[in-house]
Amino acid sequence: MFKIGIVGAGAIGKEIARAIDDGTVPAKLVAIWDRQVDEAREFAASLKQNPKVLPLERLVRQCDIVVEAASQAAVREVAVAALSNSRSVMIMSVGALSDKQLLEELRTLARENHCHIHVPSGAIGGLDAVKSASIKRIDCVTITTRKPAKGLKGAPFVIKNDLDLDKFTVPTEIFSGPAAVAIKEFPANVNVAASLSLVGVGFEKTMVKVVVDPTISRNVHEIHVKGEFGDFHAKIENVPSDTNPKTSFLAALSAIATLKQVCEPLKIGT
Ligand SMILES: NC(=O)C1=CN([C@@H]2O[C@H](COP(=O)(O)OP(=O)(O)OC[C@H]3O[C@@H](n4cnc5c(N)ncnc54)[C@H](OP(=O)(O)O)[C@@H]3O)[C@@H](O)[C@H]2O)C=CC1
Ligand SMILES: O=C([O-])CC(=O)C(=O)O
User: Where is the Aspartate dehydrogenase domain (predicted)?
Assistant: First the structure.
């Protein structure tokens, strides 16, 4: 049975932990870690599998797969610790991989140490189609993310421009630019644009629009890709997670589905 450790026990980490604990993912949850240590201890004690709460280095040594569900800032430390110890890593804060040097460093570590870097589809669908399409010429990739005000609060772009998001009474585009910039301005809102960039045309050519929308209660992502294969449109209307309005519930489900796939010999989809 695979042994899993989770770094970051927030909206996504907790959902993954519960799915391992109740057998949805056929694996053993050996440890969790979160800088909110007391909360992590309380949460760990609520699980049947009784995972330990261990700092990163000790967590890594005890598991086969390390899940990062913390923040972009945590990705380097978590992924390097896992991969250099021959442990696979699953990354949720995908925006961190817009750093080309970091991405190459992690790829090299994974190759040299015979382990893997898993990036779930997260809060969007359609990455399989974009991955297939990108074998041939792609002309454009765009993603428009619409969230209610509470799903965008605290983003560096919002703070820097002193935007009072609650004041918008109609849907308003507040950002338009390449994913390379979007992911830095909205690190907790558009990781999906990073995943799309990684399978498609990269961070400079993937265009991102962010819309604050007072008329919706869901987190909506619309993707359009045009290329030699034809046209692809996808729209997803995500229920926000109970505890973090920036994060869609589907992101956690996607992480759980990825872990299930890792534990399964049968792999379906591109
Ligand atoms: N790929 C995708 O499609 C999606 C990705 N995400 C990303 O996934 C990540 C997790 O999301 P979510 O669960 O909603 O976030 P939460 O904020 O709910 O939980 C993250 C937890 O990790 C803790 N944490 C942050 N940094 C560290 C660290 N270096 N070491 C240990 N613990 C740490 C946080 O503590 P504290 O509260 O002190 O910060 C918090 O308790 C985020 O980066 C988010 O942006 C989210 C949605 C979709
Ligand atoms: O959960 C979502 O809807 C998207 C999100 O926050 C992200 O990609 O960072």
Answer: 170-256
Tens-digit pLDDT profile for residues 38-87: 999 999 999 999 999 999 999 999 999 999 999 999 999 999 999 999 99
User: Which sequence positions are flagged as catalytic?
Assistant: 221
Model-wide pTM > 0.95: yes
| Ligand 2 pocket check for 251: Cβ under 6 Å | yes
pLDDT digits 0-9 by tens, 227-239? 999 999 999 999 9
Q: Is 73 annotated as a binding residue?
A: no
Q: Name the token pair of 30.
A: 């050996």
Backbone torsion region of residue 50, taken as left when φ is above 0, otherwise alpha when ψ lies between -120 and 50, otherwise beta: left
Q: How far is CA 245 from CA 25, 46, 68, 93, 204, in A?
A: 25, 23, 19, 16, 28
Q: Is 3-122+250-263 CATH 3.40.50.720?
A: yes
CATH topology of domain 127-239: Dihydrodipicolinate Reductase; domain 2 (3.30.360)
Atom index in ligand 1 nearest the CA of residue 71 equals 43
Look at ligand 1, atom 24, and give the residue with the nearest C-alpha.
70
CA-nearest residue, atom 6 of ligand 2: 189
Mutate to test the pocket of ligand 1, among 12, 150, 192 (most ligand atoms within 8 A of CB): 12
